[in-house]
Specification:
5 helices, single chain, about 130 residues
Length: about 130
Amino acid sequence: MVAIARPTATNRCQSFGPYRRCEPFRDAEEAWLWTMAALVARREGARYTADRGKTVRPCEPDDVVKCLDALYRRRRIDLVHARILRIWGERQASPNPAVASERCDWKLWREALDRMEWPLRVKGIVG
């Protein structure tokens, strides 16, 4: 039996050659906002891939969504977390805890992103 290496963020970064630098995201929030921008662009008809911009990212948008899905399946986040991530991700902003109407959303936003941080870091998506 032959083991096949699964593509990881490190392997993906090396495949772009010495002239393009692969840059992981600063945190889960940055990764999520980038993912949502890509998903909105895709929904509107664009063909969005990770390696077309100025900065090469260590993943495709679907990789971040798969991480979110895995957390949901393990019951680490609920549908309400995913809903808040979607709503504010489409707005390309995070909720403001200083605004009373956004305080509950901010709490759920932080919980979801805090739980996504470690899995994304392990995969090399967050640096």
